[in-house]
Specification:
Elements: H1 8-15, E1 17-22, H2 26-42, H3 59-65, H4 68-78, E2 82-92, E3 100-103, H5 106-109, E4 112-113, E5 117-122, E6 133-135, E7 147-148, E8 162-163, E9 173-174, E10 181-186, E11 191-193, E12 202-211, E13 215-216, E14 223-228, E15 237-238, H6 248-265
Parallel strand pairs: 14-15
Antiparallel strand pairs: 1-10, 2-12, 2-14, 3-11, 4-13, 5-10, 5-12, 6-9, 6-11, 7-8
Length: 284
């Protein structure tokens, strides 16, 4: 079934983002929010691992990625043969402090063909009050801007990174999402988010899927899970679907995937990877 509206690809090329469309039903939203909260209660020592590659050790995260709406959405983009590259939770407490500075993801994620797009999936109300994502339309066509790292416990970002030069913010758009809706952003687009001032946590997950023919153009390797169709290319090291939650095997695959991700993201930084990327630093 077609999920993306007519003209979506032209809008994505022009603006660098697509507004949210429903991909999960209210029942699915309730199911996956309950699974998340159950996980947080049962495994508090592993919560930071949700920051990256949570599909490696949580079967319910794979179920979410395999839902018909999600697969139809990315099928509209890439076709029927799909790899799940990453399921990365971005949970923002309603503490009035936690934020994400203005940044571009592309410079931290490595060169990929086709260019990486990120799904932004909401399991709670993600509006301006809750600190939803803000984007600068058209900024995906800009060059990479200079960034600076900060050891900031209130930042959601792995390196606390922020753009360190002035840029035009006159057309900033709030990427408002209802529970179950997913938006899409080009990884080069300038984006960030303000603190959550609402009565609920902001529950959001970054969804990264790729066609099976995708590859790193710099020759590097990444991990991915075959989520639909067939992979006849073998450009990614396979991550198997976990049989149960938090198994030794699942954490072994998570460690391999998250450590690779951390090596990419922290390349050139004086900071070291945090717990969410297989490291020991307290921050993400």
């Amino acid at each position: 079934m077609k999920i993306l509206p007519q003209g979506a690809m032209k809008s994505l090329e022009r603006d660098g983002y697509l507004p949210g469309v429903p991909v999960l039903s209210p029942a699915e939203v309730g199911r996956y929010r309950a699974a998340l909260e159950r996980f947080e209660g049962n495994y508090p020592q592993h919560v930071k691992k949700l920051t990256s590659d949570s599909h490696a050790f949580c079967p319910w995260v794979v179920d979410m990625a395999s839902s018909p709406g999600m697969l139809d959405y990315f099928g509209d983009l890439y076709g029927q043969d799909l790899l799940l590259r990453n399921m990365a939770w971005r949970i923002k407490a309603n503490d009035g402090e936690t934020f994400a500075g203005w940044h571009q993801d592309h410079i931290y994620l490595g060169e990929m063909s086709p260019r990486l797009m990120l799904g932004i999936l909401a399991l709670s109300e993600c509006n301006a009050e809750a600190g939803c994502l803000k984007v600068v339309p058209g900024s995906h066509k800009w060059d990479a801007l200079p960034h600076q790292d900060f050891e900031d416990p209130t930042s959601l970002l792995a390196r606390g990174q922020q753009i360190s030069t002035d840029f035009d913010k006159s057309n900033v758009v709030d990427l408002v999402l209802r529970p179950g809706e997913m938006a899409l952003i080009d990884t080069q687009i300038v984006h960030g988010s303000a603190p959550n001032l609402s009565d609920d946590r902001r529950l959001m997950i970054l969804v990264s899927m790729l066609p099976t023919h995708a590859h790193r153009t710099d020759g590097g390797r990444e991990t991915a899970m075959l989520i639909r169709g067939q992979d006849t290319y073998g450009n990614f090291d396979p991550v198997p679907r976990p049989e149960a939650e938090c198994t030794e095997e699942g954490f072994r695959h998570w460690k391999g995937a998250a450590s690779l991700r951390g090596k990419q993201i922290f390349a050139g930084s004086a900071l070291r990877p945090g717990e969410g990327y297989g490291g020991e630093r307290a921050n993400p």
